[in-house]
Amino acid sequence: MKGQLRAKVDKMGIKDFPRPHKGEDFFYANHCLKREKIEMLKNTIYNKILKFVFTQKVKNILKYVTIQILLLTIISCANKPDENSNFPSIEFNVNPDLLSLPLPIDNSFSIQMPSDWPEVDAQSFNAARQVINSDTSSFLRLELLKIFRSEQGASSVVSKVVNKTPLFDLLNRDFEKSLKLNFQTENVTKGKFSLNGNNTIQYRIINKDIVAFKLFCEINNNFYQIDYFIPNGIYDTEIRKVESSIGSINSNKNIKEVINKEKNLKEKGINTKKEKGG
Question: What superfamily would CATH give domain 96-277?
Fold first, then answer.
């Protein structure tokens, strides 16, 4: 009888097992019922645990999603696009000891050139201006403003862009191709940044002879092209001067302040040298 009852239990399963009848193995049947109750209790506890865990997971997921939505909202508000969003602000390391006094350009901005890069004489300037004016194949129409040149062969050219089309619309892939063709190199790198509040596009060009920095600056609703040319042989000694010069470009709103500041620094430096010499 006990064997038959065990076979019946195994076949029907614990949950389907009936209560014992007279004549059956009461103790074995009672044992099976206890097992059934234990299993039912375990299932109930397990279900409660699952329900609690699931509820907590849902709460955590909802909390996470809510936080992510808030973060996205904050980020989208903080990164609200504006007219300068494509021109991140960059500060150049400016060493005034390497530069001349600020020079006003076109009543629009000031720039400080390397102190050993003097302005060329009138004859050289007029010859260069004539070449630029007669170049009808140039990608841009330029008005030559200033030329500076060092004894070692480094130079800088400041020009005003007179194209009617907004300059930055012209600085596309075709313009980059023209740079590669003119300088006979594929090593042309383009960058965009805000220089002392002025939107600027810079091209760095490297060939077998020189490293050139070609800057296009939007200053007071005008566009200017500022070029620096450094022979490869003197690059290491001149690059800090060029970096300082680029960082000195300021719109005319700050010209008087910059000039006075630089004059004071120069005078203090001269007085200090005199005191040391005395």
Answer: Mog1/PsbP, alpha/beta/alpha sandwich (3.40.1000.10)
